Amino acid sequence: MAELTNRVEADLVLDRKMDAGRYGGGDLHNYVASQELTVTITLSEYRELVSGIATKDKDISIANDDKYKREQEIREVKAANDTLKAENYDLKVIIDNLRKQIEELENKLKTNDAANTQQADMISDLRKKLKEAQDTILYLQRNIDDITRAEKEDLNEQCTE
After folding, report:
1. CB of 94 within 8 A of CB of 105?
2. Cα separations (Å) of 80 from 4, 46, 86, 116, 156?
C-alpha cells in the first residue's frame, strides 16, 4: 500500500509539473516528488554561485565589447590600406609617364645637338619629380606593409581568443 501511495504522490507531482509547463501557469522546478533527488545548499553557497555566473556574464560582455572595437579598428585600417594602395597605384602610373617623357626627351637630345639646354633642364626636373615620386611610393609601400602586418596580428589575436 505504501508503494501505491508513493507512486500516486509521484504521479501527482509529475502531473503538476507537466500542467505548469503546458499551460504556463508556474515554474516546473517548484515541486519535489518524494523519490526525487534534491540538493540543499547554504545561502552563501547560493550567493557564490550566482556571483560566479554574474562575473562570467560581465567578462563575456567585456570581451564582446573589446572584439567589436578591434573589428572596427581592423575595418578602419583596411580602408586606410586600400586608400594607400590606390595612391601607390596612381603614383606608379605617374612614374611610368615621367619615365616615358624622360626617354622621349633623351631621344630628342640625341638627335638635336643644338639648343638642348632647355630640354636638359626639363629632364633634370623630371628626374627630380621621378625621385620624389619613388620616395613617396617607398614610403607608402612601407605604410602598406605595416598596416598589412598589423591586420595579420589582429586576425591572429582574434583567432587565439
Report:
1. no
2. 77, 51, 10, 44, 20
The one-letter code for the residue type at 110 is: K
Q: Which CATH number fits domain 41-160: 1.10.760, 2.60.40, 1.10.287, 1.10.10?
A: 1.10.287
* Residue 154 neighbours by CB under 8 Å, 6+ apart: 70, 73, 74, 77
Question: What's the rounded Cα separation, in Å, for the pair 92 and 97?
Answer: 9
Distance CA 69, CA 63 (A): 10
Q: Answer whether 123's CB lies under 8 Å from 109's CB.
A: yes
Assess contact for 133 and 98: CB atoms under 8 A.
yes
- pLDDT over 60 at 21, yes or no: no
- At residue 157, the pLDDT reads 77
Global model pTM greater than 0.70? no
- Tell me what pLDDT residue 75 has: 93
- Would residue 114 be called left, alpha or beta, if left means φ above 0 and alpha means ψ between -120 and 50 degrees? beta
**CATH 1.10.287 segments of the chain:** 41-160
pLDDT 10s digits, 138-153: 998 998 888 888 888 8
Q: How far apart are CA 25 and CA 86, in angstroms?
A: 64
